[in-house]
Amino acid sequence: MVVNDERVVLGLLRERELGGEAGLRVEEAMRPGPSTFRPFVSIAEMAHFMTEHNLESSPITTSDGRLVGLLRREDAERVSHQLHGQSEGSDA
Asked: What is the CB-side half-sphere exposure of residue 61 using CA atoms within 13 A?
């Protein structure tokens, strides 16, 4: 994740970009303007979206683009399954 001094997300560097030309500057190699998500999106929605789009991780930002954190798909799926199991158990 490439951020500026105010933690605003500028771009994304994944394995493909890091394996490119060695002499490139970060701003030349990064993918600008990556999709980000807000903290209020449900964990189940995040897990579904990330699985559907084969995303290993997704940046979580404020409405002005400041990085809050990075959610890993395996964590989103695990927590979503745990929460889903708890809600089924509470119906009994």
From this structure: 21
Q: Is 56 helix (H, G, I), strand (E, B) or coil?
A: coil
Reported in sequence order, the residue ranges of 1-92 that DSSP labels E, i.e. its strands, are: 2-3, 9-12, 31-32, 57-61, 67-72
Length of the chain: 92
H helix or E strand, kind and range, residue 82: helix 73-90
- Helices 73-90 and 43-52: angle between axes, nearest 10 degrees: 130
pTM score: 0.76
Task: Provide the token pair at 55.
Answer: 């995303």
pLDDT digits (tens, 9 = 90+) for 45-88: 999 999 999 999 999 999 999 999 999 999 999 998 888 777 66
The tokens of 17 are what? 């970009």
**Cβ(57)–Cβ(75) under 8 Å?**
no
